[in-house]
Write a structure and sequence with these properties.
The chain folds into two domains: 60-243 and 397-421 and 428-486, Zn peptidases (Aminopeptidase, 3-Layer(aba) Sandwich); 258-310 and 345-393, Alpha-Beta Plaits, CATH 3.30.70.360. The protein contains 13 helices and 20 strands. The longest helix is centred in the N-terminal third of the chain and has 32 residues, at 7-38. Helix content is 34%, strand content 22%. Strand 3 and strand 4 form a beta hairpin. With 497 residues, the chain is α+β, with helices and mostly antiparallel strands. The strands form six sheets. Strands 3, 4, 5, 8, 9, 10, 18 and 19 form an eight-stranded mixed β-sheet that branches. The chain has a three-stranded antiparallel β-sheet with strand order 6-7-20. Strands 11-15-13 form a three-stranded antiparallel β-sheet, with helices on one face. Zinc ion (ZN) is lined by residues 140, 173-174, 207, 235.
Length: 497
């Protein structure tokens, strides 16, 4: 049989093709728009069992007292200068301060207090139901150096009050948590609170120099006692307000992972000689071309492999147009977004293991061929990778954040209790915290403290004019006050269907 191809059949064929094409575009458009207006990643839980026996509130007297305590804490210069130099007398003074201003904690039969590595504190608070798995709160006492001459509006260890803010090194990193956690526990104990669930408080004294005597030893100690933790909450992310392009309203980002770190040393050796008769290749040249290759070949963009995708999906409904359309439809726009993210150094850090060549040393004299050249490369490992034999491989170390994860849901509920206007989303930490030492004790480690971050505030972190508003510090005390009570729940409510 012969099929006769006429002009008419061709036209008919293309007509149908065009119709299919138009229909597909329309359907695609409808799906994209539909999702833009209906997409919501947050799962709601059923009714919570009430564990708040003591209402989170502060009297005027308490507000005065907690501020006074906090100011003295900021005034003690607990500086970690370098790996080998810390302000020891300040750390001793800090210990005395804690004993003086938190008399209930240090005298309660419910609280066991231990000094670890000389200046770190480990508190064990015994719950009435020992079968419930304990959790742990972390914070650190030490701070990075600060110099008034860098342009501080108030001296960095003055804790001076300016326009409703307390200025000083450590006000947001991390004495607000150290004092906030203990102040909350002190007030709960004063009111006769007995926790149901046991918990630990770990206050490191050397976090800014990687925690070898503080967090590392505390973890060893807990491990030797066979402790397993339901969840760990440390510093890290914050409540961001007006600092994410397109995001409307404040969002609490709960850090569910942090970037790893690896330093690689590269070196090249060649026979030394006089520079008047140079060989074709010098050790500097060999190493320089290796470094160039490293910089040219970035490690792969892993957007979608880590929780950064979940962050956008959780916050999608809080973004303005056209961000909202993109975030609600990552099935379609994922590569567009990941391309935008890798365009800027600060957002590029979220999507890949970054490669930074930070040191290059070689040569001794102008007319001598260098026998040796070395370079150091600082890799920051993406959340979805771990380090195997100095090469990052895909294998994630991410705490879960779904509807049946106790720690995440308790933190989320506590944020909503104290800050009803704030959206909660999983997030990722680019920096490192003491919590990375705790991975053997718990699969669920979160990095968050409810400090408000507004435009310009990120420069205060380890920078000039570090400060916290008085109101924010009060909120932080209430947050921990409520968190300890919320953690007493035996089981999470079921997800709402
Ligand atoms: Zn810190």
């Amino acid at each position: 049989m012969k099929i006769k191809i006429t002009k008419k059949t061709i036209l008919k064929f293309f007509g149908i093709l065009l119709l299919i094409l138009v229909l597909s575009v329309l359907i695609l458009f409808a799906v994209v728009i539909g999702r833009t207006f209906t997409y919501k990643e947050n799962t709601e839980l059923e009714q919570w069992q009430n564990t708040t026996t003591i209402y989170p509130g502060l009297s005027l007297e308490q507000k005065k007292q907690l501020l006074e305590n906090f100011k003295v804490a900021v005034q003690i210069p607990t500086v970690s200068f370098s790996e080998s130099e810390q302000n020891i007398s300040a750390l001793q003074e800090f210990d005395l301060l804690l004993r003086r201003v938190f008399p209930k904690i240090f005298s309660s039969s419910l609280v066991q207090h231990e000094m670890v590595g000389n200046y770190s504190h480990l508190l064990t608070v015994s719950g009435s139901e020992p079968d419930l798995e304990p959790y742990m709160l972390l914070a650190h006492i030490d701070v990075v150096p600060a110099d008034e001459a860098d342009g501080w509006d108030a001296p960095p260890f003055s804790a001076q009050e300016l326009n409703g803010f307390i200025y000083g090194r450590g006000t947001i990193d991390n004495k607000q948590s150290v004092m906030g956690i203990l102040q909350a526990l002190e007030y709960l104990l004063e009111r006769g609170y007995t926790p149901r669930r046991s918990f630990y408080i770990g206050l490191g004294h050397d976090e800014e120099i990687s925690g070898p005597q503080g967090a590392v030893i505390i973890v060893k100690l807990l491990k030797s006692r066979g402790v397993k933790l339901l969840y760990v909450l440390d510093e890290g992310l914050t409540i961001v307000d007006g600092v994410v392009d397109g995001l409307i309203g404040p969002a609490a980002l709960i850090g569910v992972s942090e970037k790893g770190k690896a330093t690689v040393k590269l070196s090249a050796s060649t026979p030394p000689g006089h520079s008047s008769m140079p060989p074709r290749e010098s050790s500097i040249g060999i190493l320089a071309s290796a470094v160039t290759r490293l910089e040219k070949n970035r490690l792969p963009n892993l957007f979608g492999h880590g929780p950064e995708r979940a962050t956008f999906e959780h916050l999608a409904h809080k973004f303005g147009w056209p961000y909202r359309m993109v975030m609600s439809n990552l099935w379609l726009f994922s590569s567009l977004l990941s391309g935008v993210l890798e365009g800027q150094p600060d957002t590029n850090a979220f999507v890949r293991t970054t490669t930074a060549v930070t040191m290059f040393n070689s040569g001794v004299k102008i007319n001598v061929m260098p026998a040796y050249a070395e370079a150091f490369v600082d890799f920051r490992i993406h959340y979805s990778q771990t380090l195997h034999e100095e090469m990052p491989v895909l294998e994630s170390d991410i705490s879960s954040y779904d509807e049946d994860t106790f720690g995440y849901q308790i933190i989320k509920k506590t944020v909503h209790d104290i800050f009803p206007q704030v959206t909660v989303s999983p997030g990722i930490c680019v920096g490192n915290t003491d919590s990375r030492h705790y991975t053997e004790l718990s699969p669920d480690i979160y990095r968050f403290a409810p400090s408000w971050y507004k435009p310009g505030d990120s420069a205060r972190f380890h920078g000039v004019n570090e400060r916290i508003s008085i109101q924010n510090y009060e909120e932080i005390v209430l947050f921990y006050f409520q968190l300890m009570q919320n953690s007493d729940i035996r089981n999470l409510p079921a997800p709402r269907i």
